[in-house]
């Protein structure tokens, strides 16, 4: 995917999130929420896991060796902060990186 396609997809995603009321009108609050979410190493590991391929809740908890309640808690925080999204395929729920999550991963790689 080229830069123009990425920009277009990101723009469409932002518009969708705004129309669903998921993006706070106050950018400071939105950034605070994102930073608070990323302070936890387990949540950062989940983002890393999702760079490889979409994963189910069970796959994530198994890979990170955490229980189901912990996995759900962290996934809900990441989803609320718009770093991940859920998708359904063949009656299974998968978690994927959102454009915001992909941006975080790309920036984290550049900072290494």
Tell me what the structure shows.
This protein is mainly alpha-helical and 112 residues long. The chain is 66% helix and 11% strand. It has helices at residues 3-19, 27-38, 41-52, 57-64, 68-80, 99-110, and strands spanning 84-89, 92-97. A two-stranded antiparallel sheet has the order 1-2. Residues 1-34 have a biased composition (Basic and acidic residues).
Summarize the structure.
With 112 residues, the protein is mainly α.
Question: In terms of topology, how is this protein built?
Answer:
Elements (H helix, E strand, L loop, with lengths): L2 H17 L7 H12 L2 H12 L4 H8 L3 H13 L3 E6 L2 E6 L1 H12 L2
Antiparallel strand pairs: 1-2
Question: Could you name the key traits of this structure?
Answer:
Arc Repressor Mutant, subunit A; mainly alpha; 66% helix; 11% strand; 6 helices; two-stranded antiparallel sheet
What share of the residues does DSSP label as strand, in percent?
5-15%
Return the CATH topology. Answer: Arc Repressor Mutant, subunit A
Flag low-confidence runs: none
Largest sheet: number of strands, sense, barrel closure: 2 strands, antiparallel
* Overall number of strands: 2
Total count of helical runs of at least 4 residues: 6
Helix amount, in percent?
A: 55-70%
Rg, nearest Å: 14 Å
CATH H-level superfamily: Winged helix-like DNA-binding domain superfamily/Winged helix DNA-binding domain
Number of domains: 1
CATH architecture: Orthogonal Bundle
């Amino acid at each position: 995917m080229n830069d123009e396609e990425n920009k277009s997809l990101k723009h469409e995603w932002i518009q969708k999130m705004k129309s669903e009321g998921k993006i706070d009108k106050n950018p400071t609050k939105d950034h605070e929420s994102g930073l608070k979410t990323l302070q936890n190493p387990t949540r950062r590991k989940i983002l890393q896991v999702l760079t490889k391929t979409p994963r189910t809740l069970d796959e994530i908890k198994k890979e990170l060796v955490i229980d189901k309640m912990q996995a759900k808690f962290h996934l809900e925080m990441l989803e609320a902060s718009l770093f991940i999204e859920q998708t359904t395929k063949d009656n299974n729920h998968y978690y994927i990186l959102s454009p915001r999550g992909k941006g975080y991963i790309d920036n984290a790689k550049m900072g290494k």
